[in-house]
Structures are given as structure tokens and as C-alpha cells.
Design a protein that fits this description.
By secondary structure, the chain is mainly alpha-helical. It has one domain. Helix 2 packs antiparallel against helix 3. About 9% of the residues have low confidence.
């Protein structure tokens, strides 16, 4: 259950991209890579990680409800809390992305 989202890493990459955009250069994301390719893959990886943690929590919950002796209530509660926190973190990142997008769109007007 190592499905952690590193929000700080995502925010650091967003800041690096914003700084590079302000200077008119591309972020150092590797030779020949598309400017947003690393960010897009990181975002997809984060969403997949959140989905996986929610799937795992659902499976543990189902196993506990069915009376599986190998599944404890504490394991279920920890998995559900991890899934909830990771979803909340993803929601906050999404909110920041939408706010940044709206700010960029307002600059053009």
C-alpha cells in the first residue's frame, strides 16, 4: 500500500514550469521531451495511484463485510483513511490547476 501522492513534487514542478514560462524558456525536463510531457505523466501517475488506493480500500471493505478472518477492522479503516486523504490531496491539486488556468486565461483578456 505505497500509494502516496507527493503534492510537493507536483507543486515544485508547476513552479518550475511557471518560472520557465516567465523567462520564455522550456523547463529542463530531459532532452527532446515535450514541454508538458513530464508533468502530464506525473499527473496521470498520481491519479492512477489515487484510484488504486480507492480500489484497495474497497476490496478490503468488501472482504471485511463478507467476514474474511484475514481482514481486520483496523486495516480497513487505515486503507479507507489513506484513500480519502489521497483523494483530498488530488482534489486540492486539481483546484490549484484550475485556478492557475483561469489566471492564465484572464491574462490574455
Amino acid at each position: 500500500m505505497s500509494s502516496n501522492i507527493d503534492v510537493n513534487q507536483i507543486l515544485a514542478q508547476m513552479r518550475a514550469m511557471a518560472a520557465a514560462a516567465g523567462q520564455g524558456t522550456q523547463p529542463a525536463s530531459g532532452a527532446g521531451a515535450a514541454p508538458g510531457a513530464d508533468f502530464a505523466s506525473l499527473l496521470k501517475q498520481s491519479v492512477d495511484s489515487v484510484n488504486e488506493s480507492q480500489q484497495q480500500a474497497g476490496k478490503l471493505t468488501d472482504a471485511f463485510v463478507k467476514g474474511d478472518p484475514n481482514t481486520s477492522l483496523s486495516d480497513v479503516m487505515v486503507a479507507v483513511q489513506k484513500a480519502g486523504l489521497s483523494f483530498e490531496a488530488m482534489t486540492q491539486v486539481r483546484n490549484k490547476l484550475v485556478a492557475a488556468y483561469q489566471e492564465v486565461m484572464n491574462m490574455q483578456a
